[in-house]
Amino acid sequence: MTTHIVPVGFDYDRLIAPLIRDQFTVDRVVLLEGAVGSEANVEYSRNLAEKLEGDFQNLLGAETERLVLADVYDYDTAFVRGYDLINAELDAGSEVWVNVSSIPRPVSFALATAAHSIILERGADRERLHTYYTAPEKYLETELAEELRDARSTLSEVAEGNVDEAAVDERLESIGALLAEFDEEYTDSFRSKVICNVDRLGPGGKAYLEQEEHGNSHRTSLSRIGELWVRAHADDPPEALS
């Protein structure tokens, strides 16, 4: 069983296209939807998650589950949610792939950190847990900005009475195509590619504890990752060690 944990932001290609193109085995998908931001953003994310749910099922034959993150900017909660989710999938015997490409960065960082923590704890399962990042060939925001500049130039000409119907038609066609791509209608391009597969984070380096020198002794306290680990294992917030 192969499970992909996929936070949903505003990108379609980066979340499913590489899996189809590179013929990944995907048995189960957990889509994490963000629920904070403007009404338009929340609706867009919800619609995209709905489309991804259908496409993962229809194109890859994957069982799909949708979960909601109440606040995509709450790093601590996202860490705990991701930590519990990854552990549950590993406990069920799955090989787990975590996509950290989309959604606001606090969630991506939280999921990557949670995966790293679990790799430290579950050395025997290290080969079954992977994080990966996909990069787009281009960014629609850049193309939208360029299209706005061209449209402004055309409208300025129109405002001055210099009506070039061919130029207006060209702008309308270009804007329509770009908007269609932004609404993920052109999903057969599969422009994204996996550029970073972080499989071997390993146990090296600072983990759950950190020390500060105080005279001839050391004061030991939980590191940031350690605090999050404790929070994931207890109902009460962590306290520093004295």
Notes on the structure:
α4 links the parallel β4 (95-99) and β5. The chain is α/β, with parallel strands linked by helices and 242 residues long. It is built from 7 helices and 8 strands. It is elongated and about 75 Å long. Mean pLDDT is 76; it is low at 185-206 and 237-242. α3 packs across α4, α3 crosses α7 (224-233) and α5 (140-159) packs antiparallel against α6 (165-182). The longest helix has 22 residues, at 39-60. It folds into 3 domains: 2-137 and 191-200, Rossmann fold, CATH 3.40.50.10770; 147-182; 205-242, no CATH class.
Per-chain topology:
Elements lengths: L1 E7 L4 H9 L6 E7 L4 H22 L2 E7 L5 H17 L3 E5 L5 H17 L7 E7 L4 H20 L5 H18 L10 E6 L10 E6 L2 E6 L1 H10 L9
Parallel strand pairs: 1-2, 1-4, 2-3, 4-5
Antiparallel strand pairs: 5-6, 7-8
Helix pairs in contact: 3-4, 3-7, 5-6
- What is the annotated CATH architecture of the largest domain? 3-Layer(aba) Sandwich
Q: What kind of oligomer do you see?
A: single chain
Number of strands: 8
Strand order of the largest sheet: 3-2-1-4-5-6
Q: Major sheet: size, sense and barrel closure? A: 6 strands, mixed
Number of helices: 7
Structural shape: elongated
